[in-house]
Design goal:
Blueprint lengths: L1 H4 L22 H7 L16 E4 L8 H10 L2 E4 L9 H13 L27 H16 L19 H12 L8 H6 L3 E5 L5 E3 L2 E4 L1 H4 L14 E6 L6 E6 L4 E7 L11 H13 L7 H17 L80 E3 L22 E4 L29 E4 L15 E2 L9 H5 L5 E2 L11 E3 L16
Parallel strand pairs: 1-2
Antiparallel strand pairs: 3-6, 4-5, 5-8, 6-7, 7-8, 9-14, 10-11, 12-13
Helix pairs in contact: 9-10
């Protein structure tokens, strides 16, 4: 990125003439006189930055990026995490590129489904190199030559100017001094890998490079702690014919060439090598067959020199399989109906009540009050324990049972409303001839100590509610929420072998007198 920013970009075949510097507002004659590299360049100025604000991306935290900025005297300032205002200019630039360029490219999918056009999958597919070429041409022809709101003259703040016109104004005021880099400095801008030199040389991206000067570093220590015999090997993805070993001890470079370069007559790039590799794999070849891939690269360059076939399509379409008629004709329910005329639409009258009472209007069904709920949203019910006899276990030892004092199982149920409480009682307790009929349920129950009527002749203090129907009081007692007590069927101690209805899986605690 820095290497492309510090050098003029040459115009590419097929670009519009308006994308060239000689057709733009840049001082083309003065720039060519100072820097001959500007001849035939694109309408994009060369600017050497003083400071770069970066985020926490992997490429900006690399050793290569820090070394290049230190060599060029560029300050690097990292932006704060999750703080878009530290690089607001970059964020706004991304939004402008999306609005003015990306959405007009065929096959643009949008940032989400709401911004996605129709039949996107049926459009042409672009490779990354083709998209990069389109973006470079758009930057030189549109972005650099369109007025921006952020670029204004201090003397005429009401006039907006384009980046190329602002650059021409600054060149006229301050002058232009080109700072071309030397070959050694340009090589330091290239990416590198730390590799060990073997008797076959070094291998980068499935390509082997070797030379006589490179063999002098075979099995030689790099004198860098932690690197051993691994040396810096610089390479260019745009010109992978050569690689360079950097000897930091003498600040010198050792060049090595691709061993099968004689099979490739034209210039080629990393992308060409990848495309040739895919073709070889499709034909049943191997990825490590460098000689065959080199011949395929030469064949691709030869076809590119002849140009595209006028009979063949330039952009391949997506493979969708055989064409099958899967659409079923569905009649349109609105066919034949005229479109509504907005002028004939009558406004609905206003409501005579609030909107929140519209759904409840006319509903005369009595509704029971809402049951109280706890903090978890569950119904709050009083805890009452009712004991029932459980099947006797044959593997437990028999013996005398020691009475165990437990809490009272009697809980008088008192309804808080005027509704009858007999709906929850068994049929034999009520006097209703039709006990199966639906009855309103209680809205709230509270637990209080049992207070039976004093007029009951069978009342004995300390008794429990009797479960025998013959010993139960009249239905009026149960309808009022009370139950009679007797000592015959309600002993003070719970016999062994009973289980709780609330915890049916829990066995009763054995007595201390029963041997284990």
């Amino acid at each position: 990125m820095l290497a492309q920013a510090l050098a003029p970009m040459p115009g590419r075949p097929g670009w519009s003439p308006l994308a060239l510097a000689e057709r733009s507002e840049m001082p083309y004659a003065d720039l060519v006189a100072c820097d001959p590299r500007m001849a035939g360049a694109a309408a994009r100025p060369v600017i050497r930055p003083r400071m770069i604000v970066v985020d926490h991306g992997k490429i900006f935290n690399s050793e290569h990026f820090d070394d290049v900025c230190r060599m060029l005297g560029i300050n690097v300032r990292p932006a704060r995490t999750r703080t878009a205002t530290d690089k607001a200019v970059i964020e706004s630039t991304f939004g402008a590129v999306k609005k003015r360029f990306s959405q007009y490219v065929a096959g643009y999918t949008g940032s989400d489904l709401a911004r996605r056009g129709k039949h996107v999958a049926e459009g042409p597919l672009w490779s990354l190199n083709e998209l990069q070429d389109l973006l470079d041409e758009w930057i030189a022809m549109d972005w650099q030559q369109t007025a921006h709101d952020g670029l204004r003259s201090p003397f005429l703040p009401g006039i907006t100017v384009s980046p190329n016109r602002m650059y021409a104004t600054l060149v006229a005021a301050e002058g232009h001094v080109p700072l071309p880099l030397t070959a050694s400095e340009n090589r330091k801008l290239l990416p590198f890998k730390r590799l060990k030199v073997t008797d076959k040389g070094v291998t980068i991206d499935n390509r082997t490079y070797n030379s006589e000067g490179l063999q002098e570093y075979r099995n030689r220590h790099s004198q860098i702690p932690g690197q051993g015999m691994r040396w810096q090997i610089r390479y260019s993805p745009y010109a992978p014919r050569f690689v360079w070993l950097y000897d930091h001890t003498i600040d010198d470079w050792v060049e090595a060439e691709f061993i099968h370069q004689r099979l490739i007559s034209d210039a080629w790039t990393q992308w060409t090598w990848e495309q040739a590799t895919l073709r070889v794999l499709e034909d049943g070849g191997r990825r490590d067959d460098q000689r065959r891939i080199a011949r395929e690269v030469s064949a691709l360059r030869e076809r590119a020199r002849r140009g595209p076939d006028p009979q063949a399509k330039r952009v391949p379409q997506l493979f969708t399989g055989p064409v099958l008629d899967l659409d079923v004709d569905v009649p349109d329910p609105y066919e034949g109906m005229p479109d509504p005329d907005p002028a004939t639409v009558v406004r609905a009258p206003s409501l005579a009540m609030d909107a929140e009472h519209v759904l409840a209007a006319g509903d005369t069904t009595p509704r029971a009050p809402r049951l109280p709920r706890n903090s978890r949203g569950r119904l709050h019910r009083p805890r009452s324990t009712v004991w029932t006899s459980a099947p006797k276990r044959t593997n437990r030892p028999t013996g005398p049972v020691r009475p165990v004092r437990t809490r009272s199982a009697c809980a008088a149920v008192r309804p808080t409303s005027s509704l009858s409480a007999t709906a929850n009682l068994p049929p034999h307790i009520t006097d209703d001839p039709n006990p199966t009929a639906a009855r309103p349920t209680m809205t709230q129950r509270t637990e209080k100590p049992c207070e039976p009527r004093r007029t009951d002749p069978d009342f004995q203090p300390g008794g429990r509610p009797c479960r025998d129907p013959a010993h139960r009081g009249p239905a009026a007692d149960h309808a009022g929420g009370l139950e009679r007590r007797c000592l015959t069927h309600a002993p003070s101690a719970r016999p062994r072998g009973l289980r709780s209805q609330r915890h049916p899986g829990r066995a009763p605690r054995p007595s201390a007198d029963v041997p284990r």
